[in-house]
């Protein structure tokens, strides 16, 4: 029996045995999420959509009460790297994911909580599956949008996600 929640979720994640609620709990307990006041409020059962709220506080804002750009970016970067391996494992592909490149546009100063929306399409997933089956890797640009409390678009990030076949098989893991 594992009493440490970090070890519990880490083990389940490595086994690709998490459901959407467990993924949200794991991400909410991650130290960078806590420090930046990032909370995952909703993850769809198939992991294709997620919603996060970055709560504005004195810890993540400048003296003029505008949220730091790094806080905004950290909230926009974390989901795809966690969700894509789980989605691909449902298709029988063991893969690892990281952000290779990012382009963030700060369109408006963030002076309130920021709602961040993540959406993947079946076309995105099929492109990853095809790329991995043909080349053992695939890169694709994905977009994340952040809205303030008034529903105005404040930040838009384009992330170049790099997905590659996991080099170890489960049979000969060391």
UniProtKB/TrEMBL annotation:
UniProt cross-references to InterPro entries, sorted A to Z: DUF4442 (IPR027961), HotDog_dom_sf (IPR029069)
Domain of life per record: Archaea
Gene3D superfamilies in the cross-refs: Hotdog Thioesterase
Protein name (database record): Thioesterase putative domain-containing protein
Species per Swiss-Prot/TrEMBL record: Marine Group III euryarchaeote CG-Epi5
């Amino acid at each position: 029996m594992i009493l440490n929640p970090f070890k519990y979720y880490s083990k389940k994640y490595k086994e690709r045995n998490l459901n959407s609620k467990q993924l949200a709990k794991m991400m909410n307990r991650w130290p960078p999420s806590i420090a930046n006041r990032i909370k995952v409020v909703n993850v769809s059962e198939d992991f294709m959509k997620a919603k996060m709220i970055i709560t504005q506080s004195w810890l993540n804002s400048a003296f003029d009460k505008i949220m730091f750009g790094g806080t905004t970016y950290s909230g926009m970067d974390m989901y795809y790297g966690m969700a894509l391996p789980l989605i691909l494992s449902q298709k029988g592909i063991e893969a690892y994911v990281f952000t290779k490149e990012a382009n963030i546009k700060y369109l408006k100063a963030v002076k309130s909580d920021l709602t961040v929306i993540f959406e993947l399409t079946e076309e995105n997933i099929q492109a990853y599956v095809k790329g991995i089956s043909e080349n053992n890797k695939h890169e694709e640009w994905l977009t994340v949008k952040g809205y303030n409390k008034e529903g105005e678009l404040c930040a838009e990030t384009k992330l170049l996600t790099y997905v590659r076949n996991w080099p170890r098989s489960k049979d000969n893991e060391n």
